Amino acid sequence: MKIGFIGLGTMGRHMASNLMKAGHQLVVHDVRMEAAAPHREAGAGWAETPRRVAEATEVVFTSLPGPPEVETVALGEQGLLAGLAAGKVYFDLTTNAPALVRRIHEVFKGRGIHVLDAPVSGGPRGAETRRLALWVGGDEGVFKRYKPVLDAIGDQPYYVGPIGAGSIAKLVHNCAGYVIQTALAEAFTLGVKAGVDPLALWKAVRQGAVGRRRTFDGLVDQFLPGRFEPAAFALRLAHKDVTLATILGREHKVPMRLANITLEEMTEALNRGWGERDSRVPMLLQEERAGVEIRVPEAAIRQVLELEKSGPASPGTVP
Predict the structure, then answer these.
(1) I need a surface site. Which of 32, 78, 296, 309 has the fewest CB within 10 A?
(2) Catalytic annotation on 144?
(3) Out of 21, 109, 144, 170, which one is annotated catalytic?
(4) CATH assignment, 213-310
């Protein structure tokens, strides 16, 4: 297939190379012509503008730094809109703003052009080795038609939902990851300053209940199904544990911002009379503030987990 690829940076250069390895003929573009040198040496064509890329290919991928660059490449005077004919397809691999993705989708839809957002997760190493997740939003039929092409980019293309859904999934993933990163730094500095060897502490916590689970598996037992009783571990006991941790932090002069916010959440939940419910029940407070109720049938959750057991290994957690 003749494919256009725009953006040959840290991630894009590897994804473009993997498309070529899969036998596709590429036409590439980047703001730095030298970035395309390896691809041109391997047989890729070069186009001076995104418009020329669009004119020369059936499907176009962009992998760009962010929303301003995507808007320019998609809608600029020499952008994709000026070159894509009706029936052609545009996949944006960028971590992008859902609002912009939807606006571009509506503009292109008026010309009969399909737009799908498909941000990726796995980091530069994952992009190079094809150990990469692609979270796709848009027309499911188009996703299925081009899935063999997506398979050349990553080992886990996944259809999330309508246009913008892929971008939302990526932002949730990365935001959660960096919040967790901050919390880990806070708690770990507490342990080290309180007197535990860093390596010994790391080895110890990896063996605990949290350490043994994948990051988002913590949503499965209580939060997604909305089932907080019977308690696996009571809130009143968890409140005691976090209280002791914040006391330890004060003893050793370790700032515990996130831990204290967490303790306030747990205290509010206790004051609601939820002390004997599961320790994750304070998550309901955020549902209340956000004005959304999350309820997933337990049978549907089990089905997903069973499919994962029989499927390929999951990609890394690097954004």
Answers:
(1) 309
(2) no
(3) 170
(4) 1.10.1040.10
